[in-house]
Amino acid sequence: MNVTQIPFQNTGFFSKIMSHYLDQNKDIQPFYNQFPSIEGFQNQIETKQESFSLETRKTLVNALNEQYKSFTISEKTRNNIALLQEKNTFTITTGHQLNLFTGPLYFLYKIISVINLCEELSEKFSNKNFVPIYWMATEDHDFDEINYFNFQGKKVQWNREDGGPVGRFSTEGLQDVYEVFSEHLGNSKNATFIKELFEEAYLKHDNLAEATRFLADSLFAKYGLVIVDGDDAGLKQLFAPIIKDELQNETSFTAVSKTISELEKNYKIQVNPREINLFYIQNELRERIVLEKGIYKVNNTEIQFSLEEILQEVDNNPKAFSPNVIMRPLYQEVILPNLCYVGGGGELAYWLELKQYFNSVNIPFPILLLRNSVQVISEKQQKKLNKLEITLEEIFLSQEVLLTKKVIENSAIEIDFNDKIAFLQKQFSELKVVAKKTDVSFVNAVNAQEKKQIKGLINLKKRLIKAEKRRQKDVVDRITLLQNEIFPNQSLEERQRNFSEYYLEYGISFIDTLKEVLQPLALEFTVLEL
Q1: How open is the CA angle 390-394-399, to the nearest 5 degrees?
Q2: Which of 386, 421, 418, 390 is CA-nearest to residue 403?
Q3: Whole-angstrom distance, CA of residue 135 vs CA of residue 230
Q4: Is 149:178 a contact under the CB 8 Å cutoff?
Q5: Contact (Cβ atoms closer than 8 angstroms) between residue 21 and residue 348
Q6: What span, in angstroms and rounded, lies between the C-alpha atoms of 128 and 117?
Q7: N or C: which end of the chain has fewer CB within 10 A?
Q8: What's the CA gap between 366 and 90, in Å, rounded?
């Protein structure tokens, strides 16, 4: 096993806003409080400890014990739940959709990031406790995003009617998915484990939330992972004052809109708020709450409330009110003694819209940490890279750039026209000195001719490279095939492949290896040669 760390910014897969965040660029600094460093965590601990009550801790622990009531859980997870009652215990949280069989690989990287960060912080702050949290997105409704996973280039899909919060979906129908998936696994020891894990999770639990809890717990219970389901009446009761404020004052819309007006000057906006950022949910229903002429209506239904009635509904039935993407982060921070949210680039981009909203409701804004990313390179693939003289850093180049670079390097003739263009520019620079001594029309003519000749050289270079690619077709084809194999659909494999592909080959050692090598605070992309 070889491990290579590459700065995130050098991989080409991260947005401007994330690159600036990682570089602590001054343009992005107003949109967060603490950067993910040991000093940042020290400050965050002090802030959170002052603001998080023992009463909230008690409610949280009671809710978790109820959620785990029907599960056999590890001693470490049980201890971590109990520790949440203590004022010196804090959480590190990641969230993820309830993707079928975990969905893309990065689910594992998110979970391991929070586990490893908790362990690192425990070493730095020995008088504190740190608990890794996986927040299940049980109230989401985007079923098309979670109803499949990819296995060896094929889509394994669960077909059923959409509607309501996905965590409440019945697991009925997954027997058919299991049978199709099993046919592709074989009968090895690792294949047997994968089959049993799928069967135990989805065929022996009644809904998707329980199935996902079992699945994540089976993979990570020995590390003390605690899994939170926000679709919980007790936890929603803690959030009720924020819900009422949102309904009466549209606080999130005002605060986030103000932030966006500043953020959009330099960055692309990830999400936009609505006037009311809440859904009303039932088992088969998840619809927006809208305010029309003083009446609160549940979109696409006949359900409606006066102000007095909807505030009473919050008291009587808080579970029916579900925060959308703008308010869900706040819900998490209200009910957890959380220091840091670990997420992908897209997630953190919308979190950066929320700091002012958090300030307006007096909830500490957490540290934001970009999750670990991993690219697995097999021994066979590494041999091919070596033979083609492609470095691990170069494999992240866009395919066109990579092919052009290697064709130029392998060419027997001089293709790099940069020296020629520089020489041409020098000649025209001298000509411009002469031109300025004549008249303006001559200066314009010189500039036009310079532009024309440089453009001609660039076009000649393009034609020469195109001809070289035809001449080096074998090399071009080999590079293209290899890069497409490493990056399915020219995307990071962590967004395409499911963990079962690697588990089938390497077994539990795959997860153990990830646990060993991932360093959350290093802020680097890991290339793992297995």
Answers
A1: 100
A2: 390
A3: 7
A4: no
A5: yes
A6: 13
A7: N
A8: 12
The terminus-to-terminus CA distance of the chain in angstroms comes to 5
- Cβ-based burial of 2 (10 A; exposed 0-12, middle 13-18, buried ≥19): exposed
Average pLDDT for residues 211-220, to the nearest whole number?
A: 98
Please report which residue ranges of 388-439 form alpha helices under DSSP H. Answer: 399-410, 418-436
* Phi and psi torsions of 365, nearest 5°: -80, 130
- Phi, psi angles (nearest 5°) of residue 85: -75, -20
Degrees to nearest 5, angle at CA 373 with 368 and 376 = 170
Residue type for position 43? N
Quote the pTM value: 0.93
* pLDDT score recorded for residue 184: 94
Angle between helices 251-263 and 233-249 (to 10 degrees): 70
Provide the H-helix boundaries in 269-376. 307-316, 328-335, 345-351, 355-360
Enumerate the β-bridge partners of residue 492.
Answer: none
The structure tokens 């995003």 sit at 145
Strands 148-151 and 154-157 come out as antiparallel
Residue range 254-270: average pLDDT?
Answer: 97
Among residues 51, 36, 23, 53, which one has the least CA distance to residue 124?
A: 36
Contacts of 269 (CB under 8 A, 6+ apart): 260, 263, 353
Rounded to 5 degrees, φ, ψ at 321 are -105, 120
The vertex-229 CA angle with 223 and 235, nearest 5°, equals 115
Residue partners of 132: CB distance under 8 A and separation at least 6: 80, 91, 92, 111, 114, 115, 117, 118, 223, 224, 225, 226
3-class secondary structure for 146-211? HCEEEECCEEEECCCCCCCCHHHCECCCHHHHHHHHHCCCCCCHHHHHHHHHHHHHHHCCCEHHHH
Q: Which residues contact 52 (CB under 8 A, 6 or more apart)?
A: 87, 337
Are 103 and 137 contacting, i.e. CB atoms less than 8 angstroms apart?
Answer: no
Q: Is the dihedral of CA 70, 71, 76, 81 positive or negative?
A: negative
Q: Across the chain, what does the average pLDDT equal? A: 95
How would residue 347 be classed by pLDDT, with cut points 50, 70 and 90? very high
Residue 437 has pLDDT above 80, yes or no: no
Parallel, antiparallel or unpaired: strands 226-229 and 129-136: parallel
* E strand or H helix at 107: helix 106-124
Residue 366 is classified by DSSP as: P
Stated length of the chain: 530
**Residue 220: exposed, middle, or buried by beta-carbon count in 10 A (0-12, 13-18, 19+)?**
buried
